[in-house]
Specification:
Strand content: 15-25%
Low-confidence stretches: none
Number of domains: 1
Helix content: 25-40%
Shape: globular
Number of strands: 9
Structural class: alpha/beta
CATH superfamily: Spore Coat Polysaccharide Biosynthesis Protein SpsA, Chain A
Radius of gyration: 17 Å
Order of helices and strands: EHEHEHEEHEHHEEHHEH
Distance between the termini: 40 Å
Mean pLDDT: 95
CATH topology: Spore Coat Polysaccharide Biosynthesis Protein SpsA, Chain A
Largest sheet: 9 strands, mixed
Length: about 250
């Protein structure tokens, strides 16, 4: 493979998870891969830890907590790659996911962005929305129980054959693999979202131009703390982002 591949992780006080993320990516990725970390003003030693232990990573300081999307956009002008991975700091890989996703896009020129299979660290499949968000889907997701109801099953496309690639409307932002030229054409993440819903927005922008596809041939493992259910401030940020999303795209 002669394609250039970059990736970016945005950190904000992620000292507890960053070793697993960076260590697994650097250990498992065998294709040429330039990994950026954009730090949004961490005060827990994240920056110093990366500087000391990961010299192969390009660390960039944004100067403050500018948010998830803006953090990823911070290095967009530096990207000279063919493919770009958007990665959460609580992601772990166990094989060369980067190479698998790059090969998938190599073989499918009409696909602009791929979303891998996402599992909990213990191997359970994460039930994540694959259709565009709407109020009913979001309520079903918020009120989820151990047994997904009809709306959540529909939102996560659980009744589709997810053992093969399938077109989706909505890719989760914990791990997105996109053609760099397309990411730049769109202008990166929409600046109206500080955090939350920027991934759904980007997915819709991609789908206006080409395809977004769920690809189960690559698997990543995600801690998924669902912090907005525990933190009132984050819940308010999520609500604000939701309102911005529906104002832009409507309720369907």
């Amino acid at each position: 493979m002669n394609k250039k591949i970059t990736g970016c992780i945005v950190t904000y006080n992620n000292i507890a998870t960053i070793d697993n993320a960076l260590g697994s990516l650097l250990r498992c990725t065998e294709v040429p891969f330039q990994l950026y970390v954009v730090d949004n003003g961490s005060t827990d030693g994240t920056v110093e830890h990366i500087e000391k232990n990961y010299p192969e990573v390009t660390l960039v300081k944004s100067g403050g907590n500018i948010g998830f999307g803006a953090g990823h956009n911070f290095i967009i002008d530096r990207l000279d790659s063919d493919y770009h991975a958007i990665i959460n700091p609580d992601i772990v890989v166990r094989d060369d996911v980067i190479a698998k996703l790059a090969a998938f896009l190599d073989n499918n020129g009409d696909i602009g962005m791929a979303s891998p299979e996402i599992r909990f660290p213990d191997g359970r499949l994460q039930i994540l929305g694959k259709k565009n968000p709407c109020p009913a889907y979001l309520v079903a997701s918020r009120m989820r129980s151990d047994k997904p109801g009809k709306l959540l099953r529909e939102y996560a496309m659980l009744d589709c054959d997810l053992s093969r690639p399938v077109d989706i409307e909505n890719a989760t932002g914990c791990f997105m693999f996109i053609r760099t030229a397309l990411f730049k054409e769109i202008g990166g993440f929409d600046k109206r979202y500080f955090m939350y819903f920027e991934d759904s927005d980007l997915s819709r922008e991609v789908n206006k131009r080409c395809r977004t596809v769920y690809y189960p041939g690559a698997t990543v493992y995600h801690e998924w703390g669902r912090e907005s259910k525990k933190n009132f401030k984050l819940a308010l940020i999520q609500i604000n982002s939701m309102l911005s999303y529906f104002k832009k795209w409507g309720l369907k």
